[in-house]
Amino acid sequence: MVGGIEVGAVPFNPDGWGPPEAATGTATSLLYDVPFATFSRSDKVGRIADWTRNTNNPGKNPKQGGGSDSIFDFTADDSFGTGDEDSTFRLVDSKPAPRPKFGPKWRFNQNRSQLPQRRDEEVEARKREAEKERARRDRLYHLNRPNINSQRREAAVFKSSVDIQPEWNMLDQIPFSTFSKLSFSVPDPDDLLLCGALEYYDRTYDRLTPKNERRLERFKNRNFFKVTTTDDPVIRRLANEDKATVFATDSILSTLMCAPRSVYSWDIVIQRVGNKLFFDKRDGSQLDLLSVHETSLQPLPEAKDDINSAYSLSVEAAYINQNFSQQVLVRDGDKVTFDEPNPFANEGEEAASVAYKYRRWKLDDDMYLVARCEVQSVNEVNKQRSFMTLNALNEFDSKYSGVDWRQKLETQRGAVLATELKNNANKLAKWTAQALLASADYMKLGFVSRVHPRDHFNHVILAVQQYKPRDFASQINLNTSNMWGIVKSIVSLCMKLNEGKYVLVKDPSKPQVRIYEVPVDAFENDYVEEPLPEEEQVQPPAEDTQGGEATVTTNDIEDKEVESVA
Hints:
Residues 50-136, 531-566 are annotated as: Disordered. This protein is α+β, with helices and mostly antiparallel strands.
């Protein structure tokens, strides 16, 4: 007795493993008739006890050996319960259960009928967010594509800037796709002459915010001059002195340099006189105005008398820019003067603050280009003088741009500028090109908005931002080598033409320009144009003005603005 438990007698087998053959006693007699077989680790061992086995199965005879030859074969013996083991043996499926693509890891059986039948709200919400994110990425991809003209508005709303007459002869047609591959590097230019006078910039405007906005003033007594190349007395003098072979202005050069970004039609008059080439603009040309919402995908109203039409907004933008460039100056009479006074102002006239730089670039061994460039203000910090250009972006209706400047300028100024780069890519590129041509140290961009969306006469200055021209050019993907490559290719093409007058026209519906040979007296005051057939007649968007030199005042722009909405 060990702790009240009777172990019983254990017989000893001196001949090997297992119970002895002649074992006697109560404990061993119970197992005497049970067969015993040796086994190894690889052998299949039967169950010791199977309490679920049905022992009353009449169709089974446990005593039949089934033709077995060995006493150690227990496949037919039901003593260990192994009779049906092979027939019921199945491999275990070790593959993990399939997981749902979204949502938590549900535990469920492999039977499809036992899946939860409810729609998970979190899964659906994530699917919707994924679709929105994918759509947003697609939108950004199309907006940031280098080819801005890939998605255009309906070409039917655009009209040619000049009437193509039947007697004009088309000489060449150049698609914009060829301009993207051009590249040309020019050395630093030479300053031949500086004219005019500049007033100092008022740095208090750098601290403007939408909460302390300033009303845009009107400068009716200051004259602004938009003189074309051949009417410039300084360029005529330089041409007589054989200082160059090609002559132009910064507005004309910037139009050529940024031509691939343009959507609206424009035209440039080209005159070949002897071995010299002059790039001109017509009186009352579109180049005197500023495009608004040009590269946007949302169309503007087509009616010309609408205050938000393309023409009305161009006149309004020119009016805003002229007044803005004079309001942000320190008007105390202190000016920086240069070699010569303003060449276009008569004695006693008050000219706007502007300095003209006549600069010369070398295009080839025997080819030089002279251009008149402009800067509008000067700033002096630590006795270091820096020149700057002054331009203003204007907001006319937030429903067209999708961004409310009064709400976003103070906290998300980058988003406002990105929207303007999308809607006015050509205008901003031209301003940057003009600042680079003049070697201006800074660009000042003003953000001017209407007092009310339906009031296009009264405006407020919300903010002023400063940029360096080269840094801003890199930001808007404006390549200076490509800009000069476009100019060099057009100059080389025009130098092969015979003496005469030509016009370079941007197609209103396709990304390409055409060169026409026109009569020598074309675009003159006494030039009579032959009428086109009625189905081909297109009214020019610009109004003709009288006189060789174009002098534009704010009164003229206001009069045009009144006429456009009368």
